[in-house]
Amino acid sequence: MTATLITNIGELTTNVARDGDPCGTMHGAAVLLEGSRIAWVGGMTDAPAQAAARSGAEIVDAHGEAVLPGFVDSHTHLVFGGDRADEFEARTTGAPYAAGGIRRTVAATRAASDEELRARLAGFTAELHAQGTTTFEIKTGYGLTVEDETRLARLAAEVTSEVTFLGAHVVPAEYADRREEYVDLVTGPMLEAVRPHARWIDVFCERGAFTPDESRRILTAGAAHGLLPRVHGNQLGPGEGVRLAVAAGAASVDHCTYLDDADIAALAESETVATLLPGVEFSTRQPYPDARRLIDAGVTVALASDCNPGSSFTSSMPLMVALAVREMGMTPAEAVWAATAGGARALRRDDVGAIAPGMRADLVLLAAPTRVHLAYRPGVPLVRTVWKDGARV
Ligand code: NIG
Ligand code: FE
Question: For 172, what's the count of Cα atoms within 13 Å in the CB-facing half-sphere?
């Protein structure tokens, strides 16, 4: 079994809470990776003995820099054709973001071959890894026919185990006057066909997309087929998305840009994570969600990229951390926790998002002495080395 000892770590974010520190921060630390898992975490003075016990372990000197768990990006839409740079440009002179743009990407995605989509996914995977993301979710939602949604789920499953069926992204143009028939399709033949490739079901519960009643029906049908619910809610305005997600026992409700006190109280009493996607507010010029209010109310918050061609065409989790700190009232420690352990909670994963014996050996070594630098030096490529399942990527 291959082994790697990372030693001389100036600041180690373990996310194993202790002494009131949710990040479980250690200084002068070392971590031993064995095979695909973490075998040992401790003080660097004990590291030589650990290395000696594993003959042939590669020794990596972190030179006093910071190490943290690989980022867990719990919300992306990475299987699509084309892009929408023209819409982004139009917003710079005042055009608003509207959910209807999704239909343009649907047309481009239907026209793309498997090989084109696969090549793009490979490019995005490399892009994610280079920025420290070691676990990521991918949604369907740009096919919206039985055949295309199945194709997108199958392609997504080639690069991640966290695939989400989002047939309920928007009502496609050809069903514009027959939306009930489209919901029948999503909850019937489309669900049956996609189900073998997916773990989750999602619905865009928003004006211009699906109503609360339609959303409930879709999540219920998914659950009856063994898919776990998550929801896009309260992105473009106030609405029932958050309460619907909580009532459905969703792992996560994502966006949460427009919340009232009742939404926050419902989240605080639930197991549902509030996943905030600041790349969307950056790109669409909407107000940022109030993370401080959520955290102070006791809600579990995750950060994710929402990487997609319409509302947030970035896969950078370091950028999400920087935006959360600068624009959303989060401390650097809270933002890094939300981008790692928070993402793991949003995906109901207990094997990623922390550095502890038995966890997957997914880690990031920064070219910086503290995690604060992720927000303090925005836009600088601070991710130096990334390990996924114990191997460098
Ligand atoms: O999460 N809100 C719905 N879906 C995406 C946007 C998709 C698009 O504009 O293409 C989102 O923001
Ligand atoms: Fe999304």
Answer: 21
Q: Which one of the ligands is nearest to 138 CA?
A: 2
Task: Name the pTM for this structure.
Answer: 0.98
Same domain, yes or no: 162 and 301: yes
Range of the domain at 38: 3-69+354-392
Expressed in angstroms and rounded, the spacing between residue 199 Cα and the centre of ligand 1 is: 20
pLDDT at 80: 98
| Ligand 1 contacts CB of residue 76 (under 6 A) | no
37 and 131 fall within a common domain? no
| Ligand 1 mutation target, pool 140, 232, 314, most atoms within 8 A of CB | 232
Q: Which ligand is nearest to the CA of 108?
A: 1
Give the Å distances, CA to CA, from 185 to 154, 176, 230.
19, 14, 19
Query: Do 145 and 265 have their domain in common?
Result: yes
> Which residue ranges of the chain lie beneath pLDDT 50?
none
Same domain, 258 and 175: yes
Instruction: State the distance from the centre of ligand 1 to the C-alpha of 330, rounded, in angstroms.
Output: 24
Same domain membership, residue 130 and residue 81 = yes
Backbone angles phi, psi at 240, to 5 degrees: -90, 0
